[in-house]
Each structure stands twice: as C-alpha cells, then as structure tokens.
Amino acid sequence: MGRTSEYDKLADKSNLTREEIIKNMLNKMELTPKEFAKVLLTDEKTVKNRIKKLCSSSEGMFEEADFKDGKPYKFSKEWNGILMALLDSSENTMAVQRI
Amino acid sequence: MNLNMYLEHIDRLLSSIDTYIEEDTQKEIKAHPLYSRSKVEKELYDQIENKLGKAINIITTMPLSLRFSVFAGIHQALDSWYFHLIQMYTTDLIEKAKYKQNAMDIEKQMMDQLDKSLEELLFEKLKQEMALKELKPILDEHITDTVEEQAIINALFEELIMERWRSDANEQIKSQVQEVQEHIRNIPSNKSILDKVSRVLDADQPKEQLLLQWIEKILRITHLNEQNQRSSAAAKYLIEKTVIENASDAIRALNEKNNR
C-alpha cells in the first residue's frame, strides 16, 4: 500500500500521471529527470544517482555527459525508453551484473 | 548478489522491456538469444525449486530408517555433483581461452556476446541509439537538404508560381501555388497597386487584361526576389527576361486570335 500512496503523492504534483508519461511521452519526446522520477516512483536525486551507478557499472561505455544536454540532464526520445528500462531494474542490483 | 536477487533482477528487466521500450526496439531485443535465455533461465530456476520441493516432501514422509539412507545418498551425490560443476566451469574457461587463441576477431566477439547479461545487451542497444541520434541530423542533411537540391526545389516552385510550368503540377502543388499567388496579391502594398491599376485598366479588354497579368507577374517576381534575397542585378535581369518573354508570347497569341 505504501507504493500506492507514494504514487498518489507524486501524481498530485503535476497534471500528468505516471501512466500518461509512459503512454504519451516516453519514446515520443525528450524527458527530464523529473518525469523519470515520476515513472520510477522515486525522486530526481535518485534518478541522477542511478545514472551515475549505471555509468560506473558500464565499464567506460557511458559517462554522465552522454545523458546531458550541456549542464541539465536530458533524455532524448530516441533512447529514453531503454534508459528507463535499465534504471527501473537497477534499484539494488546495478553494481553487480553477475552472481 | 545471490542467485535469487539475480533472478529477481532479470525478471524486473524482462518486464521493464515490455513496459518502457518502444515496439520496434523491443522486437530487436526479443529476437536476441540473450533475451530468450534470460526468460528460460528464470523458468528453469522455478522448476528446479519446484522439483526439489517435491523431493523434500517425499523424504519427510518416508519411514525413518529409509530416510537416513536417502539423506546419506543425497549428501554423497551433492559432493560429487559439486566437483562436477567446478570441473565444468574450469573446462569451459580453458576451452574458450584455447579457442580464442586461433579465432578471428568476429568469432571472439560472438563468443563474448554469448556470455553477456541482458543488462549488457541493453547497454549496447542504448549506446547504439545514442550514436544513431548523433548521426541522424548529418544523414538527413545529406539526403534531402544540400544547397543545390534546395535551390532546385525553390526554383521549380518559383516556376510554378510564375505559371511557366503549370500543366505538370499535381493538385496538391497547384493549390499550394494558388495559395502563394493569393498571398502575394493580398500583401498591402501589392493590393493597393492592383486596386489602382484595375480602376484604370479594363479586364474585359484582351490587351488591357494582358497588361494586368504582366503587372501581377512583376509583383510575384519582386516578392520572390525579396524572399530569396537575390542580388538586385539578378532580380532586374529576371524581371526583364520574364516580361519580354511573356510579352512576346502573349502578343503572338493575341495576334493569332485576331487573325483567325
């Protein structure tokens, strides 16, 4: 139930719901950590931290600048769905990839 | 990370792919052997768990004397199985290292691919899409937007607006052309010129109608030249050329009509 109340709290902040972001915005337009946070039911800081973790576990494949447009984080429509899938499943496990 | 956490992670990743990734990319990922392996891996684990559970259930209901010997048997079997696993593991590493010594780069890549996790596959996909995105504006520019091609498209459209090429245009282009012509006519400065002229010239008189048409053409040329910022010398040349061509064509047509 904790998840539901957290979701309601997040949904109140703007008129777009999590489902609406997934359906109408993801893979269709550029997104920011704010929208990512809403979809992943967390806050912007956690989204940024997960990206940092993803970079360090990618063994040099990615750096933070790849996810930024200048200074702010910007997630292009061409790849934000893939990034979302990686971040959603990265809750505790991003650091270790194999057993 | 223990096995359960790993499998949970894979499970989450599998459902995330369905939820967030766009359909075409999804299809590509799902066609990869790593995807089906990850999917089956989880199912296999569940089945192993299930089978072990059933075995334990039987063992607990056995007569105590039999249960003891079953325990002893399992204990021994697991020991030998454990050594068997270690043997498999080291053999695999040695075989791969040996094969790689003589393998070509592409074969090495394929072998490495087999040992990748689903997450690493998504990393690769992400990297690929990022690179494509960087490349796309350059590709688009080269496909449709070279200076020469744009100039040709503009020139053709101008020809249409000037009515030198009307018959070959399709309906959509024709209506676009009419829109532009209408727009040029309705620009305030042009409108006031046309209003003044139409008060003096009679559109029902063939010669006067011709003059009206020329004036309108000159207004179009002037407008297009302003739009294209051509040099004034080029604009002057184009106006003269068009007026003379149109005038001689029109006069010839008019004469033929009168002579009939």
Please provide a written account of the structure.
The complex is a heterodimer of chains A (99) and B (260). Chain A has 99 residues and is mainly α. Chain A has one domain. Helices cover 51% and strands 0% of the residues of chain A. Chain A has helices spanning 2-13, 18-25, 33-39, 44-57, 80-88. Chain B is mainly α. The model of chain B has no long low-confidence stretch (mean pLDDT 81). The chains are: A mainly alpha (99), B mainly alpha (260). At the A-B interface, helix 5 of A face helix 1 and helix 6 of B.
**Mean pLDDT of chain B, nearest integer?**
81
Helix content of chain B: over 70%
Round the mean pLDDT of chain A to the nearest integer and report it: 80
Radius of gyration of chain A: 14 Å
Distance separating the two termini of chain A: 31 Å
Low-confidence residue ranges of chain A: 9-13, 93-99
Main structural class of chain A: mainly alpha
Largest sheet of chain A, if any?
A: none
Give the strand tally of chain A: 0
Provide the β-strand percentage band of chain A: under 5%
Question: Count the helices of chain A. How many?
Answer: 5
What Rg of chain B is obtained from the alpha carbons, in whole angstroms? 40 Å
State the largest interface. A-B, 26 and 29 residues
Large-scale geometry of chain B: rod-shaped
How many distinct folded domains of chain A? 1
Multimeric organization: heterodimer
Instruction: List the secondary-structure elements of chain A in sequence, H or E.
Output: HHHHH
Estimated share of beta-strand residues of chain B: under 5%
Give helix and strand order of chain B, one letter per element, not per position.
HHHHHHHHHHH
